[in-house]
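Crash report, auto-generated. Payload:
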Amino acid sequence: MNRLSIRNIKLVSLMTVALLIGIFSTSGSAEYGDVVINNYSDAEGMRPVIFPHWFHRIRYRCKTCHADLGFKLKSGGNDITMAKIIDGQYCGGCHNGEIAWAVENCDICHSGIPGTPTQVHGDTSKPAINKKR
Amino acid sequence: MKKSYTILLLTMLMGINSFVVKAETSNEASNKGVSNVNSFNRLLKKESKTNPPPMEDGIHDADNPGTALLQAPATAFETLDKSKHGNHINWVSSLDAAKIAPRWDRSDPTIQPIVFDLNIIREVKGSMPNVIYPHKAHTEWLDCSNCHPDIFIPQKGANQISMASIMLGEKCGVCHGTVAFPVTTSTCSLCHTQSKGNVQLPRSQASNSQ
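Recovered output after restart:
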């Protein structure tokens, strides 16, 4: 009896943990095309960057960033650092206080949940080969 | 007598337990949508909510002060043409209808793209309609150098394209599946547009012999 009830308590507590995980794990239904950039952020104690493709696509054609500014068509494929941005490369091509707001607004870009890996959100090739991007 | 009571108590406990298990599994299922038993099956994955605001989208940190300043996609998309895939708006028709005016040059809003109007017809196997690739819709957004020559060799017959490679994120799949409309079973007909008419499918040997 005693051993069984202990097993029951164990079971119930396991179930509760499972239930809690179920509640707190988000389904991750973020906007299609949002890019999480976490090449250095986590290690430097900053939140990862979330780049909203849709927001920029309303204002600029693909060509401005992917041809003129040299952003490669691959998440994690661009070695972006704050030093380069301040130097006018990558995001700094526009985020320089002239075309768009400058780099002092840290938490507008660095707005991701800490620990979120670099990825394109909603990438349909991800479930097919189960790769980390 | 005492023993039977304990057995009764035990069965009751087990009963409660199984009920709890049931409630929890159904709760979990409704939270996660569809179970992850076959993650390859893209047909079963349903989006729980489209165009959620940053505070509720699961990747933005709600505790970050900057998150509250971000625009919600649904607000920006209100006046744009709708679709059933990706961002749930039709970027190409929205651009054609001048509902958006994205810059071609990042500092000069007057510079216009050089649009290249050439359709490439790619014949495909079986009864599947051929693919008509419109350069026009693509050059309104992209520079030639975005695709040529790294992704597609600009030469007739030089590019081997398969749906498998596209789904693995190569060729068309570099963009279609990450930012441009995704490859799902409901988007086949967006590319496979040229009908072959009444195609006679090959019959099996058994039916031929009759």
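Post-recovery validation: Chain A touches chain B through 68 residues (CB under 8 Å).
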